[in-house]
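Throughout our pipeline, every protein is held as a single compact record rather than as scattered files. Such a record has a labelled line for the sequence and another for the backbone structure tokens. This encoding replaces a full spatial description with a residue-level series of whole-number codes. For reference, a complete record is included directly beneath this paragraph.
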Amino acid sequence: MRYDAIDSSLFQLNRKRFMRKMQPDSIAIFQSNDLMPRSGDTFFPFRQNSGLFYLSGLDQEDTVLILFPDCIKEGFQEVAFIRRTDEHIAMWEGEKYTKEEASKISGIEKIYWLDEMDKILHELILLAKRIYLNLNEHDRFQSEVLSKDIRYAHQLMERYPLHKYHRSQPLLKKLAMVKSPLEVELIQRSIDITGKAFRRVLEKTRPGAMEYEIEAEIIHEFIRNGANGHAYEPIVASGKNTCVLHYVSNNKKCEDGSLLLLDFGAEYANYAADLSRTIPVNGQFTARQRSVYDAVLRVLKGARQMLVPGITVEEYHKEVGKMVESELLKLKLLDKTDIKNQDPKYPAYKKFFMHGTSHHLGLDVHDLSNRYDPIQAGMVFTCEPGIYIREEGLGVRLENDILVTDHGPVDLMAGIPIEAEAIEEAMNAEVLAQ
């Protein structure tokens, strides 16, 4: 792995917290992600299942974690199974975990080879009454691809039909929403790398550059600083592309006088950063661009201060909508008649600000969460307002990552330039130095 070793106490704590929430006489089974075929005889780069990583730190394919807190068989409350290595695998793929390495990383004493699992797990399941399985339960995502978790669930339910089955995701969501100090440190590391990449973008962006050239500068800085790579598909959108919310083609020329909207984040130790910035391609905002930019920045600053314990995310989004509405009135993009005649289910401001302002951040850029739970200290949110004026081909989005505390929100990206003057100064540093 590219990242520094993580203290196993993080994963030990996560397992203890998870097992406390399990019902009596229950066993929980967590599978690593599939190696996803790309084409021919190749695979896409492996990315570990977030739930398994959260509970074990084991970052390797063909890994299974078993948690059985009430197991009457001594020493089998926590067990992990890993891929057996040999000289052929070592020659073609490189070394895999030894049992000792897997134990040190995870803090789990009992480590077995995966080819030993069937016999051991069969006995453990028969000692349990309930089985927890981990399926992807993101409420805004469905996939036609059957994951390893789903395939394995079908196998188990056919083999052990009289057991009671339970969902791990509701427990994981409760736990993962609140970050431990060590997790915040890992997120901060991702953010710091992302900030370095953004500063490089400020130095390199000039009229005539291709969007993909800017993307190359970003990944350059990610890799040289030990990141896994992108936490999500990067958006490098210039001109009218700034109004396409999920634009990822990144293949147009950055024209003089246009804006460049960037939405990207590094992934370090599987933890994500999520940054958005909008900069002038030639290093100088026009008066119109600046007025929209400042409006979005005011909303970000106002929204950031609302990320405090007690408020719900839905209440928060409604209040941010009112801030955006106020700014749109000032920009004369809306008038009082628009507000008076708006559909309450689809407010007038939605024409110019269509997406949510915040989402949880952690092991996934859209992290495990329950949107109906009140905000709590220890949660990490993005804060990303925007205004998109399609008729003008002008879009501005700004985004920082915020830690919620009992003493007020902490902007984890406070050190990354965001004020318009700071952006222009950084982009014109060479000229100013002459």
